């Protein structure tokens, strides 16, 4: 069995996955548009261009996504993707990338369990936790 995460986007899945490729070291995204699917003739030309399914791999972990077309978009809530890193400088780099035009919920700081810890929601409304445990250093 494998575990993956599936994210709904508000029409910006391509942009998000390209950003994650650049800033998180994700694999090259694989995209399937709604225009390639069986319901393409029922959609507007703009919706046919949107992403029906996409996938990337971030350090061995699959993340999949879609643009909300057939259902209303709802920003993710009640969950976070955790990035556990070994070095504080990597935590700082990730924090800078994910907080750029996003929302910082907890600034990068030291805690009793981590040399660097932060909580952000990125510009694509995806919630992240960045954690650099003390035992990793």
Automatic annotation (TrEMBL):
Annotated keywords: Dioxygenase, Oxidoreductase
Presence of keyword Hydrolase: no
InterPro entries given in the database record: Glyas_Bleomycin-R_OHBP_Dase (IPR029068), PhnB-like (IPR028973)
One term of GO molecular function: dioxygenase activity
Keyword Oxidoreductase: yes
Span of the signal peptide: none
Domain PhnB-like positions: 6-130
Protein name (database record): Glyoxalase/bleomycin resistance protein/dioxygenase
Organism: Oceanococcus atlanticus
């Amino acid at each position: 069995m494998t575990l993956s995460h599936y994210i709904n986007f508000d029409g910006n899945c391509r942009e998000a996955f390209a950003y994650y490729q650049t800033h998180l070291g994700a694999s090259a995204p694989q995209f399937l548009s709604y225009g390639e699917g069986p319901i393409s003739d029922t959609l507007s030309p703009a919706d046919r261009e949107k992403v029906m399914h996409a996938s990337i791999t971030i350090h061995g972990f699959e993340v999949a996504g879609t643009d909300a077309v057939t259902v209303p978009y709802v920003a993710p809530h009640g969950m976070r993707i955790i990035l556990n890193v070994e070095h504080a400088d990597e935590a700082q780099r990730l924090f800078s990338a994910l907080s750029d035009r996003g929302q910082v919920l907890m600034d990068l700081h030291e805690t009793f369990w981590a040399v660097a810890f932060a909580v952000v929601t990125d510009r694509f409304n995806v919630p992240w936790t960045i954690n650099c445990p003390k035992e990793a250093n």
